[in-house]
Each structure stands twice: as structure tokens, then as C-alpha cells.
Amino acid sequence: MTIPSFGTPGSANDVNRMHDYDDLDLTVLSHHHTLGIAGNQSSPGDHIHDAKTSKKINYSALIGVPAIPVASAVLPVDETLYAVARAIGVSAAYARADHSHGSPPNSNQVHNFSNAANAGTAGETKDVMGDSQFIAATGHKYRFMYVARAEAAVAPTNADFRIRGNNSAVSPTNVSTILASGSDTLTIAAGAGARNLIVYQTRICPAQLAVGLWTIAPFYAKAAGAGNVNALQATGQLREITVDDVT
Hints:
The chain is mostly beta strands. It has a domain at 108-245: Jelly Rolls (Sandwich), CATH 2.60.120. It is 5% helix and 33% strand. Strands 1, 4, 7, 9 and 10 form a 5-stranded antiparallel beta sheet that branches. The termini are far apart.
């Protein structure tokens, strides 16, 4: 085969045969390069760095391997309390995907009610609606309330309504801690004109209310006068005791 000299026009076949002797893909300085991902090849114009038509970009080599974050083992600010201030935070640790922020306790800690008949007393008696329980938490405020219709066998008679409790699972008696109380002088013994007596008190845990389980119950008593005292309710109404978290 005769290789045409430079400057001498040749046929297409002559040109192709001449390329048989070229330095195809031999070095980066070669005259001709095929398409591919080898070091001395060229990339197609529509390459996407998928390691098939062109090299895959090694981002770690370009920008360095990022530090692997560590899961935090420290709880953040207690978000079960109200009025927690917002904060961007400074920790480099991450929160686990299954983390939980928790939620405030049910604001209505106790809601017990009854229309079962109580018996009159000349002393102090527990309402037949019985006991209720809740758990007091540090930093929380609790409002106790007992509502019933105060009646007496004879007017005038002084009536006391009380909420008593024990900082345990023990059922309260008439010597247990008084958590709320109220008094009224009954000028009408019963029936039309008799009025509800509402007693309530707010306590802060742990300053005025110990932390932990409380068992509470409503009581009614005669403070002075000639007639027995009773805690009842008007027709269609209920006596009730509540403890609300008002933090």
C-alpha cells in the first residue's frame, strides 16, 4: 500500500488506510480519540457521568469525606412544658429518626362525677362517687375543684366541702391532707333556693403538692348548726370533682 504524502490528495479509502497507522487513544496527545471512559478516550457530548459513557465523579475526592454525625444521647429542653423558648441549637449531633418530643400530660387529670345519693352527716363523710387518681409532675400547677349542692336538714347550718388526698394509692379518709376546701352558711335547708357550693384551689408541684401519685376524694361536713349536711345535686345535674393541669 502506498501512503499518500502530505499535501497530496487521496481517495477516501487512502485516508482511512492512512489512519490505520495513527496513534489512536495512545496518549492524551494522540491525534484521534474514540469515545469511552478510558483515560485516553473522549466523552460523548451528551455524557452524564454514569460510569458507562463517561467517568463517574468522585465527590469525596473533590471535597473530602464528610464527617459522620453521631446520634445524640442527651435530651434537649423539656418540650412537654408550655412556653419553652425557641432555639436554633448548636449541637453537631443528629436526632434519631424514631425520636419523640413527647407531649404535655392530659390537662384534665381527673374528671369524676356522680348523681348517686349521699347520706346526711353531722360529721364529715366521703362523697359516694369515690376516689380518683392522678400523677403530679414537677413544675406543673394543678387546680382542684369540687361542685355539689349543699343541703341541710335544718337551716341555718354551716357546711364545709373538702377535697382530701394521699400522696400514694391509699384511699383518703377524713384525716387525709386537705387539698381544697370551702364553707357556706345554708339559709335554706333544701329544694328551691338551695345553692351549689364550689370549692377550688390551685397548687404548684412540688412547693404545695408533692410529686407522684395522688389518690383524692371529695368530702362534705357540718361545721356548725343543728341539722345534718348533705352534698347532692339539682334534678338533671351531677356532682363533680376535677383536677386540671393549668401550667
